[in-house]
Amino acid sequence: SLKMASDSPDSLMTLCTDYCLRNLEGTLCYLLDNETLRLHPDVFLPSEICDKLVNEYVELVKTDSIFEPHESFFTLFSDPRSTRLARIHLREQIVQDQDLEAIRKQDLVELYLTNCEKLTAKSLQTLVSFSHTLISLSLFGCCNIFYEEENPGGCEDDCLVNPTRQVLVKDFTFEGFSRLRFLNLGRLIEGVNVETLLRPLASLAALDLSGIQLNDVGFLTQWKDSLVSLVLYNMDLSEEHIQVIAQLRKLRHLDISRDHLSSYYKFKLTRRVLNLFVENLVNLTSLDISGHTMLENCTIPSMEEKMGQTSIEPAKSSIAPFRGLKRPLQFLGLFETSLCRLTHIPAYKVSGDKNEEQVLNAIEAYTEHRPEITSRAINLLFDIARIERCSQLLRALQLVITALKCHKDDKNIQVTGSAALFYLTNSEYRMEQSVKLRRQVIQVVLNGMESYQEVTVQRNCCLTLCNFSIPEELEFQYRRVNELLLNILNQSRQDESIQRIAVHLCNALVCQVDNDHKEAVGKMGFVMTMLKLIQKKLADKTCDQVMEFSWSALWNITDETPDNCEMFLNYSGMKLFLECLKEFPEKQELHRNMLGLLGNVAEVKELRPQLMTSQFISVFSNLLESKADGIEVSYNACGVLSHIMFDGPEAWGICEPHREEVVKRMWAAIQSWDINSRRNINYRSFEPILRLLPQGISPVSQHWATWALYNLVSVYPDKYCPLLIKEGGIPLLKDMIKMASARQETKEMAR
């Protein structure tokens, strides 16, 4: 079942292939002269492995931004004595003339070149070297493969005036390709004579001429005894075309569909044409007439049509001409036609826009070669996921992931696909998704964010990430996610909503993670980015979610991470703290976040001298009386001062305010707090608090620390009792009870 397929771990073959490709130098290859990859002389690999290496390599280059392509990768397969290739699929910009040239000695059976726009007529010549073995060939979308560069004059100076011109090659044919059976020439460049090109082929079984306009297709009848599959997508048909098709009696698959938005078509489908196909093409199992306008009504009268349960029996067909079928079709393409909404359609699989099943069939059928149709189908899926409920969730997710991977640079697909992913990954569907599938979603979302600076895509991708448990589910791509988000936040012009979501994600990513993660993110410029955002908001005099999240993120990233605390001070963080306090005296959340952060800074002994100014100490002392956010602001201000007091009277390098006066205010503040207060704070470690227990230099710091522990273990015993025991708090408290310098009420609390 689909669920099991998506859940099972990758095969050992897949894992090894992936590992070798990411570590070519350490596994199959060595570097010659520090630049060229060479295969180790004792490596011999069969085609099962080589094909997978090449096909996976193409996939990795296309979908994994961290993976570095190698100039000389294809040369590893130049010698059939050590590496054998048989079936390879190459795509897009990844492959160039010299890559095909490198593997010309291989006996290829199947070669798919899809949208390889960098290939020129040099590669046509290379194809000839595969002519004696090739059975399947696709040149779909290789729009320059029939062009060669003509160099006029040959003289140096002249060339500067006339750079190389592109000239169409007219004399290439498939002469000598004696075994070729399957050929895809989709989107072939105009001006190539298809008839001449194909004439030498003795027995074609499948031909795809998508997007090519041919007024005369009479030459197709030369394969009427062998042709089983014919695709004429987007060809404007005429009566002559129909008559030729009707003679191809061996056809099992016929596709005359079109994109109804692309251009004006004179041709309209009629009842007679469909009848002709049904009568003549008796082997037909698959027919695609998507996008066509029906000139006349082909449907059975509606009274009769609505009767009984839906049936795929030809005899009950709502589409009259299909009543003549011997058995139901395996596939019937009716996307963007009125026929797909009828009740009885004689086919096991129908592509259309009537319901989820038809829409998923459309995405599945058209993704690879028809992104223009696929994006509209995904848009329909988006509506289904948003308004109704998806019943085939895993299939839907996998199809959208495949489409996004396949068309990384297609804006429409990236926009509709990323929007659909948001609805398909939200919480109501959560239970049905495996870790592996959710990781695939994250990968493809990050790809989208990387390749598209477009606002809608960025917003959809950020929103989709919010459907995941952060940081846990993003841990495996931790650096990459953070880099992408910081990138978004560092752009000079920003969309408000994206900024808000990105800051929220950044904050969640640095909450509850290990210190080495925080240090790494700090080095990426996280602290600087947040301070810049705060600076901008201050200038606009706005205290919104972005402002609060930015301070919260700084609070999280400085937790037990001295390097990040130091960065905060070095980038004028204290100046911004004072300005925010002054500009937004009523904002309680903000005050709590800012003081939580300063608590982290105060825990670092080397940085405390920088907090030792009259201005800062006065501000902290005044905040002791704050009632903002319950006790949180007062508690954090007291925490900051407790660490400063712990350095002793000799570290008090200011005249105003007096140390004793501040100590008095601290005692008063602690005594005013309710010991059973529920808290807005989260400790991963008690170490910074426990540090204040075994000392006699500042009894008030000792009292603050004891109060903090007492409150946390009594209000949240399940969480904090084990932590206190684990970090060795019990013996510290016992020792403190014996200390002469400790105040009586502190000892009581400790006991």
UniProtKB/TrEMBL annotation:
GO cellular component: Cul2-RING ubiquitin ligase complex
Record-linked SMART domains: ARM
Keyword Iron: no
Annotated Zer-1-like leucine-rich repeats region domain residues: 196-337
Domain Protein zer-1 homolog-like C-terminal: 404-750
Pfam families attached to this UniProt entry: LRR_Zer-1, ZER1-like_2nd
Magnesium among keywords: no
InterPro entries, A to Z: ARM-like, ARM-type_fold, Armadillo, LRR_dom_sf, LRR_Zer-1, ZER1-like_C, Zyg-11_UBL_adapter
Top-level taxon of the source organism: Eukaryota
Alphabetical UniProt keywords: Acetylation, Leucine-rich repeat, Repeat, Ubl conjugation pathway
Protein family: Belongs to the zyg-11 family.
Subunit structure comment from the entry: Interacts with the ELOC-ELOB/Elongin BC complex. Part of an E3 ubiquitin ligase complex including ZER1, CUL2 and Elongin BC.
Name recorded for this polypeptide: Protein zer-1 homolog
Gene: Zer1
